[in-house]
Structures are given as C-alpha cells and as structure tokens.
Design goal:
alpha+beta, 9% strand, four-stranded antiparallel beta sheet
C-alpha cells in the first residue's frame, strides 16, 4: 500500500499545480503538505494504540528500515534521472508528470507481493522480496566513484570518470566502501 501512496503523493502536487497554476505555488506546496499530514497522523494514532505489541512492532520497524534503505534512493535520485531525460528549463508540469511515472515503477513489485502473500504467507513473502533485492540479483547495480574535492564541489561530487585524487573512495553496493 505504501507504493500506492508514493504514486498518489507524486500525483497530488501535479493536480494542485493544475488547479492553482504558476502564480500560486505557495498554495501548491501548502496544500501538498496539508494533505500529506492526514494519512501520516492517522497511522501515528493507530500505531500509538498498539504499544502493547512492541516486540512485533520492533521487528516490523527493522524490516521497514531495510525496505526504505533500498527503495528511497530511487526517488532521491529521480532528479538525476530527469536531468538526463529532460533538458534544463523544462515546464514544471512535465517534471511533476515524470515524477509520477518514476513512482509507477514501484507498482509491479507491489502487485506481485500482494498476490504472493496469500500463497507464501507474509513471512516468506518478505524473505523472498529481500532475497530478490540482493545486489547480485539487482538489475540496477550501483557502482559510482565519489571524490571529495578534486575538481568537484567543496563537499564532494559524483563522477563517472576516474580521478587522480588521493582521497578517492570507491563505493560498490555489493562489497561496501573501499579506499583506493
């Protein structure tokens, strides 16, 4: 269900932008924030009433942390993806529309998981999902060179080409960080 929330959460600013237009961006971000508070407050109240199940909630929180650690970078790096697809100066509605499309990529796994949970049970569905997301099986293998200084910004930059700086750190999701 959270992945449906991602899609709806990226669609709401687009709809509010269509309603209020370019001249009322204050209303767009305030409306988006205000509408986002409603489901978050409802879940907070609901979970606050579940304090007696703290052991199970702790296990679920750990599983959600792992899930969030895997999925949120996809949304965080959406601006990098959009910069390669759309040129600078693209209309705001086009950018918001691309964010909806990017968030739709979550849906196949959500739908497969929704049907698999009845067949495999929740525990084994979660295990299968984490095994499937293992870096060796992941199509979107992350491998980038991060350099601090060395022609980049003051706090570091991401470069595709190798750098000759002494403080280069090679980040590889499969093996962790190693200094060169």
């Amino acid at each position: 269900m959270i992945d449906f929330g991602f899609v709806i959460g990226s669609f709401v600013p687009l709809v509010l932008f269509w309603i209020f237009g370019d001249k009322h961006l204050n209303a767009v971000w305030r409306g988006t924030l205000g509408l986002g508070v409603i489901p978050a407050a409802a879940v907070f109240i609901w979970r606050f009433n579940m304090r007696r199940y703290w052991v199970r909630l702790t296990a679920i929180c750990i599983a959600w942390f792992i899930y969030d650690f895997i999925t949120y970078p996809f949304g965080l790096f959406s601006s990098t993806v959009l910069n390669s697809v759309e040129p600078t100066g693209t209309a705001f509605t086009t950018i918001l529309g691309w964010n909806v499309v990017i968030n739709l990529f979550y849906m196949p796994g959500t739908l497969v998981g929704a049907f698999a949970v009845d067949w495999l049970t929740p525990k084994y569905t979660m295990i299968a999902g984490f095994v499937w997301l293992h870096p060796k099986r992941n199509v979107f293998h992350f491998n980038a060179n991060f350099t601090a200084g060395g022609g980049g910004s003051r706090n570091g930059s991401i470069k595709n080409e190798p750098s000759n700086t002494d403080d280069q750190v090679h980040i590889n999701r499969e093996w962790g960080a190693t200094a060169k």
